[in-house]
Amino acid sequence: MDEIPELKPEEQQFSEFLNIFNAESERGAALTAAAFLDQRLLEVLQAFLVDAEEVENLLEGQDAPLGSFSSRISACFCLGLIDESEFRDINIIRRIRNEFGHKWVGVTFQSQKVIDLCMNLSRREPEELEKQLNPRGRFNFAVAILLANLLSRARHVQVERRRLRQWSGKLTWVPNQQP
């Protein structure tokens, strides 16, 4: 009998997420997906930025400049840690999350605003599935693809991790001197 290979940590995490995500209500799916993506972006930033205590103050806490989902999305994009398509889709998922999170009644994946947002997600599904997917299906598919891409991103960006440098004593700019 063949042994079942052990899952890598990222595969295990992805499997656990999908089990929870697929059992969620519409509201729960929108909130869970955004929270999981937010956590992945946090991990990517932590793996990329210098290894210093100050990074936590930048990324987490009530007054952290990069403490919100929106700011983490922008920071990851501006640092080249996510591509344009990922940036766009994660922002759309953030907006879908906001629709569900800020209204306590009347929001579903059949609400026109949510449908419109889902239809603007990048088309990554196979062509034969495209016409069969309802808005929730498109959302689920986009979330799964994004997470599959982002789960190992922190490990990959660590290779380019920023390092502390010694800048003192190095004159790098001389102002124009008037004659």
Characterise the protein shown here.
The chain is mostly helical and 179 residues long. The chain has a single domain (9-160), classed as Up-down Bundle (Four Helix Bundle (Hemerythrin (Met), subunit A)). Helices cover 59% and strands 0% of the residues. The protein has helices spanning 9-23, 26-48, 54-59, 69-78, 84-102, 112-119, 127-130, 135-150, 153-157. α2 packs across α5 (84-102), α2 runs parallel beside α8 and α5 crosses α8. The radius of gyration is 20 Å and the shape is globular.
Task: Give the secondary structure arrangement, pairings included.
Layout: H1 9-23, H2 26-48, H3 54-59, H4 69-78, H5 84-102, H6 112-119, H7 127-130, H8 135-150, H9 153-157
Compute the number of strand runs: 0
Silhouette: globular
Structural class: mainly alpha
Major sheet: size, sense and barrel closure?
none
Class in CATH?
Answer: Mainly Alpha
Beta percentage is: under 5%
Q: Helices and strands, in N-to-C order?
A: HHHHHHHHH
Distance between the termini: 86 Å
Q: Give the helix proportion (percent range).
A: 55-70%
Which descriptors apply to this entry?
single chain, 179 residues, mainly alpha, Four Helix Bundle (Hemerythrin (Met), subunit A)
